[in-house]
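Renewal narrative, Specific Aim 1. Our central claim is that a sequence can be written position by position from structural information alone. The example that follows is taken directly from our test logs and has not been curated for this report. It begins with the structure tokens describing the chain, in the order in which they were read.
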């Protein structure tokens, strides 16, 4: 369990969302995204990042890229893919503040390959943020376990990366990490987070009319 620190929480705390890449913002490929041409944003995902940005959230990507360790792509190709992704985002009015990646294969035994928390801890340090306030969205059990290990708030989006899970199987997967919130896709996550923030601001003001309009708690 991380210890909550007062660092950076006095005035305008950093509002940070960490996203997995494959299956969360772009289409997952079994054989890794190796070139710009293979980058395929998921429907509505770019717009979701833009919505979050407009609501004051910084969005950072955290991704395992063992294809580098295996020699399937090099750093220059990976950088080009992430630059292209940011160009596509810019067209929708969004941006990623950073893309953190683990280039290692499982055999290398690093501490940054998800589900280990190393990559997320690096992000926490870079942005000076209390990880307990950070929402981490992923499309696999590994992402949820990463969020748990780093002390972030875990979110799971449905993705074909998980295969054709029934509702029960999807719920059972999410239940493996307590506190996980589930969403149809990144758009639904973004809308949910923005609404939740609106509600808690209304609560802080004691604005009961806004509460009454806000619908059931989820
Ligand atoms: Zn690593």
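The sequence written for that structure reads:
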């Amino acid at each position: 369990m991380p210890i909550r620190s007062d660092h950076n929480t006095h005035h305008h705390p950093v509002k940070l969302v960490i996203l997995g890449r494959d299956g969360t913002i772009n289409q997952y490929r079994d054989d890794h995204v190796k070139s710009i041409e293979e980058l395929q944003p998921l429907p509505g995902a770019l717009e979701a990042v833009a919505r979050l940005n407009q609501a004051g959230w910084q969005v950072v990507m955290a991704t395992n890229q063992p294809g580098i360790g295996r020699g399937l792509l090099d750093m220059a190709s990976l950088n080009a893919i992430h630059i292209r992704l940011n160009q596509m985002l810019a067209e929708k009015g969004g941006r990623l503040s950073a893309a953190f990646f683990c280039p290692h294969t499982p055999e290398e035994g690093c501490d940054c390959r998800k589900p280990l928390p190393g990559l997320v801890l690096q992000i926490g340090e870079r942005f000076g943020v209390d990880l307990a306030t950070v929402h981490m969205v992923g499309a696999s059990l590994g992402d949820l376990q990463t969020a748990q290990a780093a002390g972030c708030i875990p979110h799971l989006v449905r993705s074909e990366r998980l295969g054709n899970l029934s509702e029960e199987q999807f719920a059972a997967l999410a239940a493996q990490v307590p506190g996980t919130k589930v969403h149809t896709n990144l758009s639904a996550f973004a809308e949910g987070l923005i609404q939740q923030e609106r509600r808690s601001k209304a609560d802080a003001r004691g604005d009961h009319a806004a509460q009454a309009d806000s619908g059931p708690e989820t």
